[in-house]
Amino acid sequence: MQTQLDALPKATLTADERAGLLWMREEEKLAHDVYVALDAKWNLQVFDNIAGAEQTHGDAVKLLLDRYGIADPAAGEAVGTFSNPELQALYTSLVEQGSTSLVSALTVGATIEDLDLADLQARTTTTPDIALVYSNLERGSRNHMRAFTMQLSRNGATYTPTHITQAAYDAIVAGSMEHGPLG
């Protein structure tokens, strides 16, 4: 990813782009940290695999923070600790929900990816380096949504999206796994 970013010009970021990078850095950390907690509780491979992918996604956003000299809000924060109070509360709520049953845990996973996709789509940008990272994060979230949906189905459950449209969700789960640098 670093090589791809280095090939792109640096831009002058808007306040919204800066705020978006800060939010996405902590939102990727939230996904990672929730999946680590749920993996510890349920010992299900999907949580371990996707936690690793979320770390990679967070690292990609950190590359952008470093590139633009923006302080990392996740620097030095332990697993489950966030500088943003909204994300701190969301983390606590999601881990509590996901600790009640395996199906609840898988639903939490799908919900996180649902939220991630909605947030990324709301932060559409024409700034090439940010657009590159965000498109890779979206691809990863679609793949994670497929994985959680498949696990829910294996456990006799379904997922109803709350952040993206039903049509968007249906298109995602009907599609094949996508490949890319942060897939």
Distance between the termini: 12 Å
Task: Give me the strand/helix succession.
Answer: HHHHHHH
> Percent of residues in helical segments?
55-70%
Q: For the report, how would you describe the main beta sheet?
A: none
CATH class: Mainly Alpha
Question: What is the topological layout?
Answer:
Blueprint: H1 2-6, H2 15-42, H3 45-67, H4 85-98, H5 102-122, H6 128-154, H7 166-174
Helix pairs in contact: 2-3, 2-4, 2-5, 3-6, 4-5, 5-6, 6-7
Key features of this structure:
single chain; 183 residues; mainly alpha; Ferritin; 7 helices; 69% helix
Q: Can you describe what's shown?
A:
The protein is mostly helical and 183 residues long. It has a single domain (12-70, 78-174), classed as Ferritin, core subunit, four-helix bundle (Ferritin, Up-down Bundle). The chain is built from 7 helices and no strands. Helix 3 (45-67) packs antiparallel against helix 6.
